[in-house]
Amino acid sequence: MKSVFSLFLFIFVVLSTPVICQSKQSAFSTSNLELSGGWVHSTGNSGLDGFNLGASLWFNKRVSIAFDYDHAGDTSTLGNFGLTSAGLISVKSHMQNWLIGPRVFFPTKRVKRFDLDPFGEFQFGGTYLNQKISQAGAASMSASDSAYSWMLGGGADYVLSPHWAARGNLDLLRTHLSDMGQTRLRFVLGVAYTFASRK
What we know:
This protein is mainly beta. It has a single domain (33-194), classed as Beta Barrel (Porin), CATH 2.40.160.20. The chain is 14% helix and 59% strand. The protein has two helices and eight strands. Strands 1-2-3-4-5-6-7-8 form an eight-stranded antiparallel barrel.
């Protein structure tokens, strides 16, 4: 519940910042806001799938500050049928990421004819992981941890219209759960809506 409250608080701050800045400086307005969402896959823990939600503020045509929230999970079993003496063992994993940082778009004339807008990004924040192990005829065990994480990668936007774009990301996500470092690949396919025109 605390993590959900933190997410809503951050989104409220992101959405209210352009309105506050508009009175002081005309360069910022709600048209600088972008909202995005899509499917996310993260390696590790037997592979996790889920959804991604994002919001970003554009400072100019090439630079934005982006916030990403990932919610992914997986349920897997040890063995196909559980016909061992231990019985059926299942592992349920649930991971959430809160990441914020700059996203920089690169001007390239060669891919402009295909309406592609490549970008690089670096974000940092936190990760929460919960795992539950269940065995037939035995008590379930669970463990969870939250820790600092960072992400480095990039992708490209395929501009569909002045406001809509299809987006693909491939990132290296470094988590530090249980006082150990884990390296994961993070893949996102989704769409983005920008209030200002992209063309």
